[in-house]
Amino acid sequence: MTLDAAPAPELPNRPDHSPRSFLFVLGSSRSDGNSEILARAAAAHLPADIPQRWVDLNRLPLPDFQDGRHETAGHHAVENEELLRQATIEATDVVIVSPLYWYSLSAQSKRYLDYWSGWLNMPGSDFKARMAGGTLWGVTAMAHDEHVVADGLATGLSHSAAYLRMRFGGVLTGTASRPGRIRADEQSMIRAKTFFHRDAPLARFPYEQEADAAA
User: Fold this and answer.
1) What pTM, to 2 d.p., does this model score?
2) Contact 153, 137 (CB under 8 A)
3) Ramachandran assignment for 31, one of left (phi > 0), alpha (psi -120 to 50 degrees), beta (any other)
């Protein structure tokens, strides 16, 4: 399959004009899975001067998250968790790369997001302030041809972004089941070329959107 080689448009500037840097968080149980292939196809069209960091949650495993919000000592990040926390707050753009499992994120991806709750409550934490104004994105591959079935995954990411006052760039979706089959989804591979060049508006909860419309 041969796709057009037309250059993608320039990436929109962030409102604060800070340098862009992308963190790709791989949450598949399969190495080089279809979601990762689709994400790498999209990342290939980012400008060369924008740093990319890729982390595989299978190589940086996290134990099940324990909520310690009401404990005296509070939450303290250690080992793999601290590496992931630092990578997260250092990026302007965080991309959750997860296959669609039961119409939501993979267990690895969801566990990573659960840890955001702990990072919000670390002693002296500035996690929420550091994340505000950044952009959250999603990339997912699924066996279904109708990509509307991934709306639950997209809603979860959008609401997470809204809580942290982040921007939400949406979810790049593709159809594939067997390993490598995403390359045969020509429309998804075409969308990948300009996915990260789209405008990412400030994420809003539905009730906030309704209040704005009524004002």
Assistant:
1) 0.88
2) no
3) beta
